[in-house]
Design a protein that fits this description.
Thiol Ester Dehydrase, Chain A; mainly beta; single chain; 2 domains; 241 residues; eleven-stranded antiparallel sheet
Length: 241
């Protein structure tokens, strides 16, 4: 066993469960490669002790005897063209178009994209439509200094949380609730607290209730600093009650 951890309720995604990106970023720290794939097989409850266990070159998160999350490392490369950058001004405009007000948002207290979170509490990455590019959603993210990893870089869970929800919104419709099923990603450059970045999500296709997306994080000059590919499962909101 690597460690036993308890994830604070602050990092909630769906009510009572940890934001999928935060879980993925946490697990990425237990895999000794720069590229990581994380499969979320069960929701991870907040404020509950769970164990990280070594499995080969990867790691598994378990609660009791139940396997919740599997993280594997390796030479992941995006299987489709990379997400193109969106300029800072366009991302600011897109954020202003964010449609999911608290009463419409499936998870309004989500650590990554919840509009009900206070500034400095959640990330408040609110991805809206990009003018002339209907397949994209974009938002700005000013990295808070509380996510400094001690070397003037943002900690991995915050970065993966930033990459997370922007992949859901290109697909999302009112009345739906997306949950992250799998995310593969990597960091390509430094992401510094105090700086403002652009997060872009792109819809890449669908298969029944599965939705496929790519996301990327850019600096103000359009340099790609992190990227991911994702599989989402779309649920009906009443089924989560």
């Amino acid at each position: 066993m690597f460690a036993q951890i308890t994830i604070d309720g602050r990092y909630e995604g769906p009510p009572g469960f940890v934001n999928g990106g935060w879980v993925a970023g946490l697990m990425s720290q237990f895999v000794a490669t720069s590229t990581v794939t994380v499969s979320l097989r069960r929701p991870v409850p907040v404020d509950t002790p769970v164990s990280v266990v070594r499995v080969g070159e990867g790691a598994t998160l378990v609660a009791g005897t139940e396997e919740l999350v599997v993280a594997t490392g390796g030479g992941w490369e995006p299987s489709i063209p990379a997400v193109e950058p969106v300029g800072l001004a366009d991302a600011e405009w897109a954020t202003a178009q964010f449609w999911a007000a608290a009463e419409e948002h499936p998870f309004p207290h989500c650590f990554s994209c919840g509009p009900s979170r206070a500034v400095g509490d959640g990330l408040r990455i609110l991805p809206g439509a990009v003018a002339g590019r209907p397949e994209l959603r974009a938002a700005t993210w000013k990295v808070d200094h509380q996510y400094d990893a001690g070397r003037c870089e943002a900690v991995a869970p915050a970065v993966w949380s930033a990459l997370d929800c922007s992949g859901a919104f290109p697909h999302l419709r009112p009345g739906e609730a997306p949950v992250l099923g799998r995310i593969s990603g990597r960091r390509l450059g430094e992401i510094r607290p105090g700086e403002t970045y652009v997060v872009v999500g792109r819809a890449d296709g669908a298969d029944g209730r599965k939705r496929y997306s790519s996301t990327a994080l850019f600096d103000g000059d359009g340099h790609r600093l992190a990227e991911s590919q994702q599989t989402w499962i779309i649920l009906d909101r009443p089924s989560l009650a």
